[in-house]
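To: structure subgroup
Subject: Chain for Friday's discussion

All,

I'm putting the inputs and outputs inline so they're searchable in the archive.
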Amino acid sequence: MNPVVIDPVCVPLLLVERHEWQRAEASLELARATRQPLRLCEALTELARCERHSGNADGAAKRFDEALGWARLLGSVDLLADLLCERGELAADEALDALQPTRDPEPDAWLLARACAAEAAVLAARASDPGWEVQLLLRASDLFNRLGSSSEATALQTRALQRQGGAAWPEPGPAPAIQARAHPTLQ
């Protein structure tokens, strides 16, 4: 009996169309040739998405991490926050086993997902558009909710609803109890 030979190059193509892979790889080659950081970030993100949809979480994580490095270099808050949400979602997938929901989460992936959600929520306040800020806050909220941090999720949802209503997020100041207990010379 002849063993079945599977071409390892074709295995990832099971869930992603060949033209998507080819387009993403060609974009990465062009971006590397032209040395354009934004194009590199975009191409790496597309390859990471292909890897993720194909079930290769390790490959996707490497691509997302490299794209995050370029996004940090660019200083684009919108792009960085979006990538952090995607990287956090991938880490949450690794941390939480959907087939065994009672199993304890994998701690490193859980912490990474939480850190990505927290950083994205902080960056959302500096987003270029209020609508985008709301979307980032809701994505971070969903991520916190998946990780079992319902209080953080609720706080971000509240913040998103306030921002959606047009209210500016108040600048943090000292708590009223602190002001009331301040030394008389400081008042």
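Points worth raising on Friday:
Confidence is low (pLDDT under 50) at residues 1-14.
The radius of gyration is 21 Å.

D.
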